[in-house]
Amino acid sequence: MSTPLHQDPRLDQAASTDESLLAAHDKLLGKQPDEKGRYKLPPLHLLFFFSGLIFFAGTYLNRYSGMFDPRVYNENTLPPSGETVVAKLDPLVLGKKQYDAICITCHQANGLGLPGAFPPLAASEWVSGSDDRLIRLVVYGMTGPMTVKGVLYSAAPMPTIGKVANSQYNLSDDKVAAVLTYIRHEWGNTGAPITTDQVAAVRSKEGDRKPYVEAELLKLN
Amino acid sequence: MMKNGFFFFIGLLAAFLLGWSSIPLLAHKQLGALTPFYDDGESSSFPTRPPGVAARGQLVYADLGCVACHTQQVRRPDFGSDKARGWGDRQSVARDYIFQGRPQLGESRIGPDLANWGVRKPPLDAAAIAQFLFSGVVSGAKAVSHPPFPFLFDDRPVDGEVAADALVGLAEKTPRRQIVPTERARTLIAYLQSLNNAYEYPEARHVAPAVAKEGAPK
Amino acid sequence: MSSTSTHAEVTAVDTAGRWPVLLLLASGLGWLVISGICALIASIQLHSPTFMSACEWFTHGRVSALAETSFVYGWAANAGLGIALWVLGRLGGSTLRAQNWSMIGTLFWNLGITLGLGGIATGDATSFALLELPRYVQPLLVVAYIAIGISGILAWSGRRTEGTYASHWYAVAALFLFPWLLIAAQTMLLWSPVRGVLQPIIDGWYVQSVFSLWLAPLALAGAYYVVPKITGQALPSYEFAPLAFWTLLFVGTMTGGRHLIGGPVPAWIPTLANAACWMVLFHYIVVTLNLRGALTGGGTSLAFISFGLLAYLAGAVLDAVTSFRGVALVTQFTYFTTAQQQLALYGGISMLLFGSIYFALPRLTGRPWNSGSFVRSHKVLAMVGIFLLVGSLAVAGLIQGTELSNATTTFGEIAGRTRPWLLAVSVAQVLLLIGNILMLVNFLRSVCVLCCSGAASEAGSFRQPTTMEVHAS
After folding, report:
1. Counted domains in chain C
2. With contact defined as beta carbons under 8 Å apart, do B64 and B185 qualify?
3. In this structure, are residues A46 and C290 in contact, taking their beta carbons and an 8 Å threshold?
4. Which domain does B85 fall in, by range?
5. What pLDDT does residue C5 have?
6. DSSP state, residue B122
7. Do B63 and C407 touch (CB under 8 A)?
8. Which of B44, C43, C220, C279 is least buried, going by the fewest C-beta atoms within 10 A?
């Protein structure tokens, strides 16, 4: 009974009863007036502190939330305005993809074709020549023999590539333009790029038609 | 409010519901219906679904607790050294994970990030990964850099031909025995090889506007 | 039953309601030791990666999950519930009701944990942080928890006084909120999983809620009771306690997204978390002001509670500071976050619970703790151990973070540079493990005396408490 408080590490003595603990703190919550009949005002410094935190948090949230947009991953940026702008593809990249998927079987990765079977694209007068001729040749394809760099090729027809009737590949205009730009850029070729609009113009002018023969194309320039 | 049990209960409920709706619910509303991104140029959509064997491998990855040491999330190029370490050229975005059964984002980088491990440079083939998982030693190095997981392999006598995927380098020591990856090891390896977040989505591009699409590889 | 009402400090409220509480506390301390062993293995693997890795049950990932799960659901849950039930019973002024429910619930809860840990070891872990327990034990946990909690809720609703006290709020909040949380997290992550990156977002919310809505309230319920009981002083700044309580509940859960800074989630999720980290500081400051009496008092309980209180505050301040993206750039993904987690869970929650247990057990058994030297040793080992654990992890984390941001440093070099500090972490885990074994043995011996000799209570060693006066603050 006479052990001094906190002497024994095995037992911590309690200083107050549960009932008085409850009563004392209930009173502190300040809903009822104290002995002198006054309501207590809570200390203001903590309220100021709390408001400060709210202000800081609100400012931070406003500054770095990216307007709560799910497309914003960098907190320093704002959401993209309007529609998502899909970056324009480099036609050379897009063209190479199409070439590797379609043309490469016959014309080969080096653009030289297969002698006696498939004509070369490298240094070909058809590739560097008339835009209209090249576009029509690829969009609609060609049947019958043709002469490239002085050599006659008649083993296989050029397939229909563009988005026209009976096409084997249905490539959109921009892809056709890209692949033409690509072959004019590779293997030492130096032709001007072909635009999507040029391809679209040819397609709207010619409509759906059967593949060309060499003579028809040679009439164009 | 503190004395009235009913109001106290309502307060608790409100606290729970506010927390729940401010993060899980709002995030779900924004990201729950993310669709793959169709790229006209590629004529296919991204991300691609992982092959079934890789999806099973993710379960092995999860049950071994690999997530305790490896993250699978790349931070944007101007935030940390992730790009410089070759972990990925762009920030990981939510769309990367939509086909993953249980994304293993992770919170600890005791080992490297694995988000693009399938296309790491230099690439590791399946046999090299198996060797690494078995011994914990990168081929060529001396010290153990990863805990070895021999339990993913069968040590069994050679019965007829040596198995095609048996680990090499052990035959000379014990010619009558071979160490062969188990089914779990094979799926885990397939999973690791499938990790590839290289495709750039519009939202990922928006983050790093200076980086041109595809970077025109030569 | 042997106590009499002449000694008001130990009454029938304690003695007749002791078994559910003792069962919970004993289970908690048992899990704490098991968790300590797993944590020791995991910490050794950090500097010696081959250690036990050949055994599939103890890969680093699994053994860390075992350590974390047994710590939170084994130790903190059992001990916290034990303290909450005891405090609610005492403040309610009558013997705990529905004791059978509580004891059966405890048995099933621990059965569920045991099965679940076995599942994690053998490969059924879910790989969600703090929700690693396999799916098949999760419903059992919900039901068992509700069964345990009924006693506490009955003691709260059947209390003798009209008014409530801070311990009431925190304990009842923990009892009600955890099942909601667990059900919500299970549903969205395990039963009907949400897609993709939403899983880590929701898991982050769950992990934070487990801390803010469950473990912290359980620990505070005990601390708010014990501190004024020992000091005999009404709590200073108590007018703010309700606001602090609601701040924790409403804002605390929103801080979970801070781990996703720079991650594949929209920027507003970490930003909201960072803002919340600062707002919730109000809660921590008020709690520290309320309980500051503990810092000046002596004795075992108050020593633990003082340490726990300061660690609780320090953890929150560190969370707020590292929530800035510039700081997180270094500390994220490193041992530093582990240090913060250990500071909050071990330094904060566990130490507060230890303090409450040291105060509660003599009241439950009617006699002082069995061994004073064990108590003193545990106190020293726990404090030194936590200092060493958190300090070494923090230093290792800063080294790791600095080196990670230098793209030319290899992981081998980082491992070499952090190795001395990771060795210190293992030493700390050994100290903590020894201390906790001492506490478990001391606890069991104190309770065994009760079973064996039964009758002879040492009620005379308890002083008669007096009435608390409210001083003008």
Report:
1. 1
2. no
3. no
4. 37-209
5. 38
6. S
7. no
8. B44
